[in-house]
TrEMBL record:
Residues 59-97 form the RecX first three-helical domain. Residues 104-145 form the RecX second three-helical domain. The keyword Cytoplasm applies. This is Regulatory protein RecX. Keywords: Cytoplasm. The gene is recX. Pfam families: RecX_HTH1 (PF21982), RecX_HTH2 (PF02631). Modulates RecA activity. It is found in: Cytoplasm. Belongs to the RecX family.
Length: 203
């Protein structure tokens, strides 16, 4: 196949490579890497090779932009699937991201856990649930949770209880159970909730 014409779309930032019976859209990186120019003859294997590379290069650049903030491997895979990339392309991009240290599920679990405990005041159980949603391996979740402060967990619980109390009437017959359920839904351990409430009511 011989390249008949090459056009550039400024809006889409894509090059259209025209052959006799078909045309293929590629990025600038592909055009340069394969030295594509009008009049160049390509065999079928070369055409498939540059099409594959262009898909990979596009997926890689999308993933790098998506990783402006930390993400888990699962999140990146899911994002690329929504863009209709093939599994082998996604696998190659994931390998590349690990090789340049842009992906690390353990670092992600640690950063996410600290952020959720210190800023959003999540209880540990809610953090575990959220990390599992992002398909972080259990061994990484365990490590991240072990590094969280028990003192901060208790302090967050006490503050959450104080805030919730202001929304409840102490005369409500379900006052205690509403407090327990509210704290449980925030991800705090049921035994810790009861212990802190018991100390609170004893004061």
């Amino acid at each position: 196949m011989i390249i008949k014409k090459i056009d550039y779309d400024k809006k889409e930032k894509l090059y259209t490579v025209y052959f006799e019976n078909k045309n293929i859209e590629v990025r600038q990186g592909t055009l340069i890497k394969f030295n594509l120019y009008v009049g160049k003859e390509l065999d079928r294997d070369m055409t498939e090779e540059f099409k594959y590379f262009d898909q990979y290069d596009t997926a890689k650049n999308l993933a790098l932009r998506y990783l402006k903030n930390m993400k888990s491997e699962y999140q990146v895979r899911f994002y690329l699937k929504t863009k209709d990339f093939e599994e082998n392309i996604i696998d190659q991009v994931i390998d590349y991201l690990y090789s340049i240290k842009y992906l690390d599920d353990l670092d992600y679990a640690r950063a996410y856990s600290l952020d959720r405990q210190n800023i959003y005041k999540y209880g540990k159980n809610k953090i575990i649930f959220k990390l599992r949603e992002k398909q972080i391996p259990e061994k990484f979740i365990d490590i991240a949770l072990m590094e969280l402060s028990e003192d901060v967990e208790i302090e967050n619980l006490r503050k959450s209880i104080a805030v919730k109390k202001k929304t409840l009437k102490s005369t409500d017959k379900n006052y205690y159970y509403k407090l327990v359920n509210s704290m449980f839904n925030k991800g705090f351990d049921i035994d810790l909730i009861k212990k802190v409430l018991r100390e609170d009511f004893d004061e």
